[in-house]
Specification:
By secondary structure, the chain is α+β, with helices and mostly antiparallel strands. It contains 9 helices and 15 strands. Helices cover 24% and strands 32% of the residues. The strands form 2 sheets. Strands 1, 2, 3, 4, 5, 6, 7, 8, 9, 10, 11, 12 and 13 form a 13-stranded mixed β-sheet that branches.
C-alpha cells in the first residue's frame, strides 16, 4: 500500500534518521537554515514549511517538504529524502514528487519550483516527474569581514510596492515572472533610489546560518554594481555575519562586483518548475470511481492510498 500524509509525532525517528541524507531544493532554506529544517518541522511559527511522509512496502520510506509562500499561489520544493546516494529508488522519488504536487494543488498552488545543482542525478527524476528548467542561477558566499564604501540603500516601505513591482518587471523575463513572483512576505527589501524611482533593490532572507541576498540592479542605475553590492552588504551588516548571494542568469553585471566584494562562487544551479494541474499517470495511482448509467461521475485523483484525494482537474 502507498500512503503520503503530513509528518506526525510518530514519524520523528524517520525524520531524524534522514537528517543530512536528503537533497535540498530551496537555496533560501538550505543556505540560511541547513539540515535543521527537519527539527523545525514541529516549531511554531513555521507553518509555511510543510513536511510529508511516504511509506511504501516495495520502495521504502521517504520524506518530502514544501515551502508555501503566504498570499502567493506558488510553492517551492524544499527537500526530498533520502537521496539516491543514500539508497532511495527512483520509484520512491516519483511517488514522493507526485504526492507533493497533489498536496500543493489542494492548497491552491499553481506552480512548484525546485533549485538543483547542475549535474545532480536527481534532476533526471524531476524531469520524469514533469519538472522543466526555466532558468539558471549562481550561488556565492562571503565570510564576515569589513565592508568597503558603497551606495546608500534604505529599507523599502509600503509606498515602494508599485515601483518595486515595476522594476522587477523590467529586469525579469515574463515567463519567469509568471512562475516565480517577488518573494513578498518571505524577505526584507532594501531600495536604491534613482532619479525616477528605485533603480536597484535587494531581497534579504535571514536565518540562523547567515543571510541570503538577491540583488536586482537596472542597467541604467546611477551607481556601478560594485557600489551597489557594497551598499547591500552594509545594509545587512556583513561585517558581523556570513552572507550568501543568489543571482539569476538574466541579472547581468553582478559576478565581477560580487568577486570584488569578497564573495566566492560556490555553486551553479538549474531552476525548475512544474504546474500542479497535470494528470498524474504514475502507476501507483488508481481511480476508484465507477461510471454508472453511461455517465461519468465527478472523479478525483486517488493519491498514494486512501488517505488523500486531490480534486485538481487535469488535462493530458
Amino acid at each position: 500500500m502507498v500512503d503520503i500524509r503530513p509528518l506526525r509525532i510518530r514519524d520523528l525517528p524517520l525524520a531524524y534518521r534522514l537528517m543530512g541524507r536528503g537533497v535540498n531544493f530551496d537555496s533560501h532554506i538550505s543556505l540560511t537554515t541547513g539540515n535543521t529544517i527537519l527539527q523545525q518541522a514541529f516549531r511554531p511559527g513555521l507553518g509555511e514549511l510543510q513536511s510529508y511522509v511516504l511509506r511504501q512496502h516495495t520502495s521504502g520510506s521517504g520524506l518530502g517538504q514544501l515551502h508555501f509562500i503566504q498570499g502567493i499561489p506558488h510553492a517551492r520544493l524544499a527537500l526530498v529524502a533520502p537521496s539516491l546516494q543514500h539508497g532511495a529508488t527512483s520509484n520512491l522519488w516519483l511517488g514522493l514528487l507526485e504526492g507533493l504536487i497533489v498536496e500543493a494543488g489542494q492548497r491552491g498552488v499553481v506552480t512548484v519550483t525546485a533549485e538543483a545543482p547542475e549535474g545532480l542525478p536527481e534532476i533526471d527524476i524531476l524531469r520524469r516527474a514533469g519538472f522543466a528548467i526555466y532558468a539558471r542561477q549562481t550561488l556565492w558566499r562571503r565570510a564576515a569581514s569589513s565592508i568597503g564604501q558603497g551606495s546608500v540603500l534604505r529599507p523599502a516601505s509600503k509606498r515602494d510596492a508599485i515601483p518595486m513591482t515595476n522594476l522587477y518587471g523590467q529586469l525579469v523575463p515574463r515567463l519567469v515572472r509568471d512562475i516565480d513572483p517577488p518573494p513578498g512576505s518571505l524577505a526584507m527589501c532594501y531600495i536604491q533610489d534613482g532619479t525616477r524611482g528605485p533603480d536597484g533593490m535587494v531581497f534579504v532572507f535571514s536565518g540562523i546560518n547567515g543571510v541570503l541576498i538577491e540583488p536586482y540592479l537596472s542597467a541604467e542605475a546611477a551607481c556601478d554594481p560594485a557600489a551597489f553590492v557594497a551598499g547591500a552588504l552594509d545594509a545587512v551588516q556583513a561585517h558581523r555575519k556570513t552572507v550568501y548571494a543568489r543571482v539569476r542568469d538574466y541579472i547581468g553585471g553582478m559576478a565581477g562586483a560580487l568577486a570584488s566584494a569578497g564573495f566566492r562562487q560556490i555553486e551553479v544551479q538549474v531552476v525548475m518548475y512544474r504546474l500542479t494541474a497535470v494528470r498524474i499517470s504514475h502507476p501507483s495511482y488508481k481511480l476508484k470511481e465507477k461510471i454508472e448509467g453511461g455517465m461519468p461521475l465527478p472523479t478525483s485523483i486517488q493519491t498514494l492510498g486512501s488517505g488523500t484525494k486531490s480534486m485538481v482537474e487535469a488535462k493530458e
